[in-house]
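Hi all, long-time lurker, first post. I run a small reading group and we've been trying to get comfortable going from sequence to structure in the token notation. Rather than ask abstract questions, I figured I'd post a concrete chain and ask someone more experienced to write out its structure so we can walk through it together at our next meeting. Sequence below, copied exactly:
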Amino acid sequence: MSGQRHTHENPKETAIACAQHILGLLEDAAAGGSDVSLAISGGSSPRMMFEAFARTRFDWSRVHLFWVDERSVPPSHDQSNYRLAEQTFLLPARFPTRNVHRIQAELRPELAAERYVADLRAFFGALEGDAAVFDVIHQGIGPDAHTASLFPGEPLIEDRDKLAAAVWSEKMSQWRITLAPLVLLNARHSVMLVTGADKKDALSHVFHSEYAPLEYPAQLMRNAHEVSWYLDRAAAEDLDG
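-- Answer (accepted) --
Happy to help. Here is the structure in token form:
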């Protein structure tokens, strides 16, 4: 299994450590003088990480922010990943709006995905077939071992051409727009934040079960470049070490 594992006592400690690690990676990436790229995920676990970002004195002017996935809702909706980040991170940190690359999820799902792909291609200079190579991608996993909006059985899991796509989640009865495996697997650094006892079975499958990403999508991260896992004790209970 690729990647380094960091286990902390509780979700807050885990989220703060994860935030500090991501900020360090961004500082290192920016040392060359270029703008850097970060993609963040939504869900329940990142809130405290976003709050840690907002509390930290950091030069966000050279960071371009993208989203790993988004629910097909307007940006003001309670379920919007953008809204969560806006309230807990972007506004308190005075993140430069010109550097925010929001998924326009209020549009039809296919159109929202097309526009997001166009934004990715424009920023990264990615031609057809090229990956958009992020400096850092933050992800989590669900109790069913999904990551991004790649749920068990999703055909996009096996795709290695697309940058992003609209997918239908039968479990959630909802359209979502998500980065595709081509992008997730080619990030320079992937940082996985996973907390809560409801994730321990999924983590056990991700780390120890036979490779079957259609069943356990987060197993895709076994093949990513450099992966750091930030876990709390409840989530890591069934792992060795």
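A couple of things your group might point at:
The longest helix spans residues 11-30.
The mean pLDDT is 96.
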